[in-house]
Amino acid sequence: MTATQARGSTGDPSNHVFHFFSELLNRRVRTEDGKKLGKVSDLVFRLTEPFPEAVGIYMRHAWGKKPAQLVPWEMVVRIDPDAVIVKLPPSGDVPLFVDQKGWIMLEEHLMGRTILEIDGRKTEVVNDVHLLEAKGKLLLVHVDGSLNGILRRWSLSGLSWQADDLISWKFVQPFSVEDAVASDEVMLSVTREQLKELPGEDLADALEELPAEEQKALFSALDSEKAAETLVEAEPRAQRQLVANLRKERARAIFSEMSIAQVADIFSILPHDHQEEFLEILPNERAARIRTILSKRELTAGALMSADFLSIPASKTVSEALAIIRSARHRGRAPSYLYVSNDRGALIGVVDLRELISAPETASVAEIMASPVVMVGTDDVLDDVVELFARYHFRMLPVVDPEDHVVGVVHSNDMRRIA
Is 83's pLDDT higher than 90? Predict the structure, then answer.
């Protein structure tokens, strides 16, 4: 049953309504008097038993001009075909989004994820999420593995030619969802042959869920090509575990299926002694090229950073920020960005200095900053820093300590010269 087959409202406890997440995604969020607040960028749920319960509507704003907000589900009055209607508190404010332990986001953590069903069923992909609206709550009750979810997302639901493949949430454990805790009822039960047929990325996810001995046994059953594909896709912790158990002949066969860059990626997370052991079994030319790559990767953001940066509390106004910039003295290159911190000194936003100059002087820095911020840690290696510059094309990136305090910046020009 879809939302069009049973109509009700969040405020009406006598009715219940089923919704598909794909139909709610990007729907307008507005007040009863027509004020537009934004769009549904995602839905946030708390992992409760027996079904996760909606915490609120996540609204991400275009171009990062405004921090992401969370409309608490208690504010939702009803879900109309063209908008989600909410009632604001007397202050008229919508709180900022602050992630919490035990929360998951449907678009971020579930859509497109691979799941393994119990009872030996085939591997599925989450193409949609089925929601139940009743008694003022919104519950996550099923995931849909059919192609219909993709069609609904493209507004082509009229082309559906198969039944929805709804799997009850209690039989589903999401992979790679931070803080996701499965109940005792949730199991991962697939055969070795089924896992061997999975793509490398999905197989890596499945291997990471297995105990060490089962992980070792399953990986040893893969041929060299599939093992290499899986190893490349695995998380660093799993990579270290899998490589540590390899015999030299097996390791040589697997590494021969990988590019030099891929092998260097694996070696970069190994202890130095293990690096040397594996380098000895590689052909001399490949070993020499990998050594060259590894020597560069030993450089970290902390070693490459400059102290020429500007940071300011979010509570300051544009006028105050400009005054700070004018009074600052820089021995090196002039900073391109102004980094914004909260009351604990942690980095929460960034402002391009060119935008700061054109902003109203009475506006607060928090109003014009972009958030979240792309940042690097002091221990991040050169390759990771270069990849971020290539992806985002920033002129500089902030370097932060474990508490997200800005301790320096790295410049794109420096990375181009070194890499």
Answer: yes
Tokens of 58: 């996540």
Rounded to an integer, the average pLDDT of 51-56 is: 93
397-410 pLDDT, tens digit each: 999 999 999 999 98
pTM of the model: 0.42
Residues, the chain, total?
419
Q: What is the pLDDT of residues 199-232, one digit of tens each?
A: 777 778 767 766 676 677 678 778 888 889 989 9
